[in-house]
């Protein structure tokens, strides 16, 4: 374990990473920095990706706690965070233990990296299309998996679980407004990484 932590330390030092834990547990911080390094490597391969901001969702964190993170890739810090729902099809008999699917009509969340695409107005008002970049989320467009607000998602953290979506990353209306400003002001595509 000590060797693994040493490797993680040198990897994070080389690539940069979140150093202030922002109330994250060691396991959450480890998962976050692993995803962060993957995203940083990926965005350097394509000029159309935003190199300043990325979004991260840690589905291992309970849905009543902040698990959607807006991250400053330049200064290596979390700029904002909020609650985000997971798909009802991801729920198991054990609360907090989730399963994931890329299949149509599964109502499940899908893990992987997404490109946040163009906005449109749908059932929940303004929403952003998400294109899956991995085998685990390649059907996102076909499944109409989008980033959208929903009035039943609370603004503040709580001790119980929040409502579920049909597989979309669904956030509160106020948090969505903050995300909307970032997305609409970005000249390049923002990456959203959903992991577990």
Written description of the protein model:
The structure is a single chain. The protein has 196 residues and is of the alpha+beta class. It is built from three helices and nine strands, in the order H-H-E-E-E-E-E-E-E-E-H-E. The longest helix has 18 residues. The radius of gyration is 16 Å and the shape is globular. The N terminus is likely disordered.
Strand content: 25-35%
Radius of gyration using CA atoms only:
16 Å
Structural class: alpha+beta
Distance between the termini: 20 Å
* Total DSSP E strands: 9
Biggest β-sheet: strands ordered side by side in the sheet? 3-2-1-9-5-6-7-8-4
Question: What is the N-to-C order of secondary-structure elements (H for helix, E for strand)?
Answer: HHEEEEEEEEHE
What is the molecular shape?
globular
Estimate the mean pLDDT confidence.
92
Largest sheet: 9 strands, mixed
**Would you identify the regions where 5 or more consecutive residues have pLDDT less than 50?**
1-15
Helical coverage, percent range: 10-25%
Number of helices: 3
């Amino acid at each position: 374990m000590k060797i693994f932590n040493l490797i993680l330390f040198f990897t994070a030092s080389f690539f940069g990473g979140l150093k202030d834990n922002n109330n994250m547990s060691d396991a959450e911080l480890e998962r976050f920095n692993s995803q962060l390094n993957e995203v940083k490597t990926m965005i350097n391969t394509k000029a159309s990706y935003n190199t300043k901001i990325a979004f991260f969702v840690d589905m291992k964190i309970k849905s009543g706690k902040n698990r959607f993170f807006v991250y400053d890739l330049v200064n290596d810090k979390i700029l904002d965070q909020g609650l985000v729902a997971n798909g009802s099809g991801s729920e198991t008999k054990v609360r907090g233990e989730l399963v994931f699917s890329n299949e149509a009509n599964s109502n499940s969340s899908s893990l992987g990296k997404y490109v946040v695409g163009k906005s449109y107005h749908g059932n929940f008002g303004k929403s952003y299309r998400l294109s899956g970049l991995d085998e685990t989320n390649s059907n996102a467009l076909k499944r109409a998996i989008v980033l959208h607000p929903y009035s039943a998602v609370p603004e503040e953290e709580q001790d119980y679980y929040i409502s579920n979506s049909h597989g979309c990353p669904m956030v509160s209306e106020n948090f969505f407004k903050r995300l909307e400003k970032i997305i609409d002001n970005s000249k390049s595509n923002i990456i959203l990484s959903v992991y577990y």
